[in-house]
Design a protein that fits this description.
By secondary structure, the protein is of the alpha+beta class. It contains 3 helices and 4 strands. Strands 3-2-1-4 form a 4-stranded mixed β-sheet. β1 and β2 form a beta hairpin. The protein is elongated, with a radius of gyration of 18 Å. The relative contact order is 0.21.
């Protein structure tokens, strides 16, 4: 195999600012828990978390997270 076929083209990745943190509330549960999405860098790459409302507010403060608006129901369909 020659060298030109063994090297893949470089991948261009979008800019990522790791100081950019965001949360999006998905659901407030009747038992006092908040279901939400948390992202670092890219708002479209998330982990889903759940914690008490008090802990959620402390988490947002500690992470200096921007609260994003809820997903619209039209976009989810």
């Amino acid at each position: 195999m020659n060298q030109s076929t063994s090297l893949a083209a470089p991948i261009e990745l979008p800019q990522c600012d790791l100081t950019r943190r965001s949360v999006r509330v998905n659901r407030l549960r009747s038992n006092g828990f908040v279901e939400f999405e948390f992202s670092v860098g890219w708002p479209e790459l998330v982990v889903e978390l759940m914690m008490t409302e008090k802990d959620f507010h402390a988490f947002c403060t500690r992470q200096n997270a921007t609260v994003l608006p809820p997903h619209s129901e039209a976009a989810a369909q």
